[in-house]
Design brief:
about 220 residues, alpha/beta, Rossmann fold, 8 helices, about 35% helix, about 20% strand, globular, transferase, methyltransferase
């Protein structure tokens, strides 16, 4: 698989790791149920680069929790692009946790892997008060806010990678996000100068504690 030229700009010194990650996903992703067979040919543009460019929204030396990490997206590309970050991958499915642990070891990444769900009290207690929470293709915005915002310190941000429906979700779920303790969601694009199709991200700041009425 050809590596896009822009990957060197996105990953810098982490490019070799990104190429190895792409190789591992290509070799094992479909058979282990991590990606669909049609995704192999667009692995770089649709998944790896799409995930890595959110680095421009993450403060330096931040603590980051990637919720529902699955195949490691966006957490592993983000870790490869930004070695200054302290990243924890949270995933409930045992077989995916096993995959993530194998990849972290193979790539020699300083990344933690935790099995569990963001909404579990034990996970919140263990990981809470971080700077940034990321999530990609995990759940609708209202549910995602209820899961992710409690993991953030006040002033921390949730970065939800979304598709074309992002603005519709924001309009529909803004009230639920507020009940979960979030700011008014904003829609932004990452990688506009690098990618043919920039990554759409919904950004929510944690501004207060969750309302008792929030689910």
């Amino acid at each position: 698989m050809d590596v896009p030229e822009v990957a060197a700009q996105v990953f810098g010194d982490g490019l070799d790791g990104a190429e190895r990650y792409a190789e591992l996903l290509t070799r094992h992703g479909v058979e282990r149920g991590l990606i669909g067979p049609r995704e192999i040919d667009r692995l770089w543009e649709r998944h790896i680069l799409n995930s890595a460019v959110i680095a421009e929204r993450v403060p330096r030396d931040a603590t980051v929790v990637d919720v529902g990490s699955g195949a490691g997206l966006p957490g592993i590309p983000l870790a490869l692009a930004r070695p200054d970050l302290e990243i924890t991958l949270v995933e409930p499915m045992a077989r995916r946790v096993e995959w993530l642990e194998e990849v972290v070891e193979d790539l020699s990444l300083g990344v933690s892997v935790v099995r569990g769900r963001a909404e579990e009290r034990t996970i919140r207690k263990k990981l809470g008060a971080v700077d940034v929470v990321t999530a990609r293709a995990v759940a609708p915005l209202a549910r995602l806010a209820g899961w992710c915002l409690p993991l953030l310190r006040e002033g921390g941000i949730m970065l939800a990678l979304k598709g074309a429906s992002a603005r519709d979700e924001v309009a529909r779920d803004a009230a639920a996000v507020a009940r979960a303790g979030g700011s008014t969601p904003t829609v932004s694009e990452c990688g506009t100068a690098l990618l043919e199709t920039p990554t759409t991200v919904v950004i929510v700041e944690r501004v207060r504690a969750q309302s008792k009425r929030a689910g």
